[in-house]
Design a protein that fits this description.
Dna Ligase, domain 1, Rossmann fold, 32% helix, alpha+beta, 3 domains, D-amino Acid Aminotransferase, Chain A, domain 1
């Protein structure tokens, strides 16, 4: 299917300022999108509030606006530029929330502009915790036992059915912002108050504890002809309870049997179909009980994500570039693989090496920050390394953190303080 002839200009929504949970991975995807769409002869309009990015360089887009990514500002840009479509899937949670606001306020309808890459319904079903839970049940997939709350009183009342510890996750936030793990009433009230304040829909999802479960991610790409490929499987070394952005991750997954991987693969594709992501890349996260093998769908992101950048670097498959071209009408079999130059993008990448990502923390710069890792992202960067084995790539990644360590150094043997117990006898 050739690209759509009715599209002449596209507005790309950027991710806004660099904050914890939203960094250069969205600049990477946005830059790829700008190049891909310009190569197709489209006029590209870009809005992003962060001038310190590559995507805002004058040569990247035909028109660049360094403005806040809010629906009021974007409406004025749409009024001036009159784009045929808006592409929100390259700018993270900020862009998705802005796209929903544009639809809710009637801006898209008023100017005859459509959303491409992800529809309003797909974004809603993926980001709204209650709708997502209902969608997973409709296709026979299990989610964590959970309750929804829209106020502090409702949260306290509903939490009794979940018990402690429990996981609190606000809707429509990035990097687990406002969420956390509560072990008692005091922590629960504190996290809920913050989460309700930060969620644009004042909605909280209170989950049963999955602490200690194994966590996996699959990067899936789908086109409008329902061709689906798994670009990469990613395994989190840290268990559930630690945000995936704060976890050491390895690709491909190391501890899955082929049967387990195929089950997860089929589930991920079913999730995309049910949510309604017709074109582009999505990230689906799973939790697996190491004792029983119980599989749970944690969440899915109907956009290019932090893990998409890792998967692109790990496999050489340019997810953002491919997703941009799929959004304007192409199918996977019509796009060529940049690495091989001979096979179409519908061929799943195969790698015979191991890629490890390790997060970088700077708690010394944030004196007030708690250094205990939870479901809220706290890392400020990451290092990635490639090796023939997990041990090799892990060692390289540790050295790349620039923290002064040379890798997995042996721990010096500790000597007992009172080896002959003489001090104990003196005290007696």
């Amino acid at each position: 299917m050739p690209r759509r002839a009715d599209l002449e200009s596209v507005l790309i929504l950027g991710a806004g300022p660099i904050v914890i949970g939203q960094a250069c991975e969205f600049d990477y995807s946005g830059t790829q999108a700008c190049k891909a769409l310009k190569d197709e002869g489209l006029r590209v309009v870009l809005v992003n509030s962060n001038p310190a990015t590559i995507m805002t360089d004058p040569a990247m887009a035909d028109s660049t606006y360094i403005e806040p990514v809010t629906w009021q500002v974007v409406e004025r840009i749409i009024d001036r530029e009159r784009p045929d479509a808006v592409l929100p899937t390259m700018g993270g949670q900020t862009a998705l929330n802005c796209a929903l606001d544009l639809d809710r306020e009637g801006v898209l309808r008023a100017y005859g502009t459509e959303l491409i890459g992800a529809s309003k319904e797909a974004i809603d079903k993926a980001e709204d915790r209650e709708l997502f839970d209902r969608s997973m049940k409709a296709i026979g997939l299990e989610t964590a036992k959970s309750v929804i709350a829209h106020s502090m009183e409702q949260a306290i009342e509903e939490q009794e059915a979940i018990g402690f510890p429990c996981i609190i996750r606000p809707s429509f936030t990035l990097g687990g912002t406002g969420g956390g793990v509560a072990y008692n009433r005091e922590e629960f009230a504190e996290i809920c108050e913050k989460g309700l304040d930060l969620s644009p829909t004042t909605e909280l999802l209170i989950d049963e504890s999955l602490l200690g479960w194994k966590e996996y991610e699959l990067e899936v790409v789908r086109d409008r002809e329902d061709n689906c490929i798994i670009v990469c499987s990613i395994e989190n070394v840290d268990p559930m309870g630690v945000h995936t952005g704060d976890s050491i991750t390895v690709a491909p997954a190391q501890t899955l049997t082929d049967k387990e991987f195929q089950r997860m693969r089929n589930a991920a594709i079913a999730v995309l179909r049910e949510i309604g992501v017709e074109t582009g890349g999505s990230n689906v996260q799973f939790a697996v009980d190491p004792k029983s093998g119980r599989l749970i769908v944690v969440e899915m992101n109907p956009r290019v994500s932090r893990s998409s950048a890792l998967a692109s670097k790990a496999t050489g498959f340019p997810i953002a570039k491919v997703a941009s071209k799929l959004a304007i009408g192409y199918t996977l079999d019509e796009l060529m693989n940049d690495i091989t130059g001979a096979t179409p993008a519908s061929f799943e990448p195969a790698i015979d090496y191991v890629v490890t990502k390790i997060p970088r923390f700077t708690f010394e710069k944030f004196a007030q920050a708690e250094n205990r890792l939870t479901t809220q992202m706290k890392s400020v960067g990451e290092a990635m390394a490639i090796g023939r084995t997990f041990a090799e790539s892990f060692q390289k990644a540790l050295r790349s953190l620039e923290t002064g360590i040379c890798g997995l150094e042996p721990v010096e043997e500790t000597k007992p303080v009172d080896p002959d117990f003489s001090l104990m006898f003196e005290l007696r």
